[in-house]
Structure formats: C-alpha cells, structure tokens
Design goal:
heterodimer; A: 113 residues; mainly alpha; Protocatechuate 4,5-dioxygenase, Chain A; 0% strand; globular; B: 280 residues; alpha/beta; Protocatechuate 4,5-dioxygenase, Chain B; 3-stranded mixed β-sheet; 35% helix; 21% strand
C-alpha cells in the first residue's frame, strides 16, 4: 500500500490545466511518466515510493470507490474526481450521486499517511 | 503595546462564496446578513493587523512536508491557487503581511517556550484564508499574520493542543511591543463532510454536533469543547469537521469567554459557523 503516492498523484494531476489535460488524454501514459519522475531522486520533491498495480489501475479507471476504500485522503479524492470529470464528462450533480454510490459501502476508512 | 481588540470565527466555504458573488440565493440571505454584521464589527474594531488561524487544504502544503502549526512572516503574500481559480472563480490576490508581529509570535530570537512553530517566509494563502478576508476586509488592505494549522492530513494535533495554541496567541499578541490593534480570526467548519458518503446532503451531516458546538461557544465552555472533539468524534460529525478545532483556538485566545454571537446558520452546505468573542 502506497497511500501517500496515490494522494500525491491525485494532487499533482489537479495542479494545473496542463497536468489535468494530460491525465484526461491518456491516464496510463501520464502516470507512467509521472511515476518515473516521482521516483527519480532529483529536487524539489524527490521520492515517495511507487504505485502498486491496484493503485495504478484504480487511478486510471477513476474507480472512486476503490480509491476511497484504500484510504486515500477524502478531500484530495473529491478534488481529483471533480477536476477530472466536471464539467466535460458529467454535471456536478451527476458526480455527487455516482461518487456517493461508489464510496458509501466503505464507511470511513483510515486515511492516515 | 499591542491591543487584542476582538476574536471572530467564520466559515470559509468556497462554494458558498462563489454562489454569493453576484446575487445572494434565498438560503444564504442569513449568511450574507451575518457577514455584513461581522464586517461592520471589523470596521468598528479598526484593527491594523489580523492574526488569521486557518488550515491550508493541500495548496501550499502537501504530505511531503506537513507542519502541525506554522506561522507565515512576509511583508506580502500570494493568495489563491490555480485550481481554486478554476473551480471557484477565486481571483489570485495579494495580501499584506506583518513580519514584525509574526516574528514576535514565533518567539523572537528563539522559538517560543512550549511552542515549536514551523515558519514560512513565503506563505501562499488558499481559500481557507482568502474567503474570510474577502468577506471581512474586501479591499484586503489590513496586514495579516497567517497561522497555518494542520486539520487536513492526520495525524492532527489534539484539541487540547489547539486550546494551548489559543492561550499562547492571546498572551503573545498582548505582549507585542509594537503599536497594534490586533484582531484574531479563525476559519473553519462545524460538522462538515467532503469526499465521503455524507457530502452535499443539503443539510448538516451531524446537527447534534453543531448544536453542542454552538452551545460550547456561547457558554465559553472550553473544557467541554476540548473533551468532546477527539479525531474520532469529529470524524463522526463528518470527515472535514476537524477545522472546528480552529474555533477552539479562538475561544482559548479569550481564555474561554462566552461568545457574544454564536450561530450555526442553516444552509444547503450545512450549518455555517459565525462566532464573535469579546476580549475584555
């Protein structure tokens, strides 16, 4: 489990319109490039580990239920979900409804890092 | 010597701010009236520095480097981040700082006894600072000392520690040698959830918590507030309720005086906090 790295990936995707567009265009390619940079020991934010296969798959598939169940930070998860989906793919109301359905079965997982 | 002129606690909900920007929807008229009232309080108190206690939401600070308590000391600060502009329409702004007061709060030549603050010479304020300022001091002309508290990335400091922070700030402000009228503003939530099953319910995720919380403030019951705001209890109230702890700091700045104004104003976003404490 590399919960911190999942948080960091979601955080970085939301940092700019460029990163957001790159992730939306090709999530797999974005994560591959990002992870290779994130694990290379150069400044300013050198290392954090790497993503596991289930983590990478959940990010690529935007599987909010799986990410939530892993214990990612809920604030970062919602920020990520809203930024990658609204308004191009669905309305805010639609995202609220589908997000609730996805996370509800998982209660309140520990999200400490 | 500096004078502590007032202590306020308010909401910083950026969706609320965006919604009220042009015209005020029906469910937010009471919120608008409360902000009008608080803005006139600020005007009457005529502060020339604001110590603003708020919690960055992964804008300046990320889990790569997460201080529990941090004081910003800069003559001028950036406010508003790219994703806040994109999502809420918050324009990037500049806010004046008060490095002399900030340096005193840090402790002077040594860090303060009993409080090992982190500091930043380049604080960059997010909506948790900017939204209260836009409502209370729309011209952003009053110098601000930002006090960053970690309420978003657990492990968090305990409620008891937030109370100690308030006691410390109250004493430290009063012992500052510069001529200042200092206002303390806390920024936070009552019961609030984001990114969990109870977000956007159209009402509070925990009305019972809100009622108790407002009562602690109006009664000045610092001990009860500290006793009933563990991490787990706040999670029960909603997974973003931790920022209520900033109001415990505010109450402790006054040594636990009863608030003269304490309200959880009902809105579509839940009950939004408005607190005002006397300082003498």
């Amino acid at each position: 489990m590399s919960r911190y790295m999942v948080n960091k990936a979601m955080w970085e995707i939301d940092q700019s319109t460029e990163t957001l567009a790159a992730f939306k265009n090709d999530a797999s390619a974005f994560l591959e490039r990002w992870e290779s940079q994130a694990t290379r020991p150069t400044s300013p934010y050198p290392q954090g580990g790497s993503l596991t296969t289930p983590e990478r798959q959940a990010l690529e598939a935007r599987d909010y239920g799986a990410l939530y169940a892993m214990g990612v930070n809920p604030f970062l998860l919602w920020q990520f979900a809203r930024s990658v989906s609204v308004p191009d793919e669905m309305s805010g109301e639609e995202l609220v409804a589908s997000f609730r359905d996805a996370v509800e079965p998982h209660g309140y997982p520990d999200f400490f890092t | 010597m500096a004078d502590l002129v007032g202590v306020l606690g308010v909401t910083h909900n950026p969706l609320m701010w965006a919604m009220m920007r042009n015209s005020v929807p029906d469910d937010l008229t009471r919120v608008a009236a409360n902000f009008d009232h608080f803005r006139s309080l600020v005007s009457d108190l005529a502060p020339d520095a604001i110590v603003l206690v708020a919690s960055d939401h992964f804008h300046m600070l990320m889990m790569s480097n997460m201080p529990a308590f941090m004081i910003g000391k800069a003559p001028e600060m950036r406010a508003g981040h790219a994703n806040e502009e994109r999502q809420f329409g918050l324009d990037p702004s500049r806010v004046p700082g008060d490095p002399a007061l900030a340096a005193h709060l840090l402790g002077g030549r040594d860090l303060a006894t009993g409080f090992d603050f982190a500091f930043s010479n380049e604080p960059w304020l997010d909506h948790s600072f900017l939204v209260p300022l836009l409502f209370l001091t729309p011209a952003l002309e009053i110098p601000v000392v930002p006090v960053f508290t970690n309420c978003n990335a657990p492990p968090l400091p305990t409620a008891a520690r937030f109370a100690e922070l308030g006691r410390y700030l109250g004493e430290a402000i009063r012992s500052f040698g510069g001529e200042r009228r200092v206002l303390v503003v806390g920024s936070g939530h009552l019961a609030h959830e984001l990114g969990g099953p109870r977000q956007f319910l159209g009402t509070s995720p925990d009305p019972e918590f809100d009622e108790k919380a407002v009562t602690w403030m109006s009664a000045g019951d610092l001990d009860a507030a500290v006793a009933d705001t563990s991490f787990d209890r706040l999670t029960e109230a909603g997974n973003e309720s931790y920022q209520f702890l900033n109001f415990i700091t505010c109450m402790a700045v006054t040594q636990g005086r009863p608030a003269t104004f304490a309200e959880g104003t009902p809105t579509r976003f839940g009950n939004l906090p408005f607190f005002s404490w006397p300082t003498r």
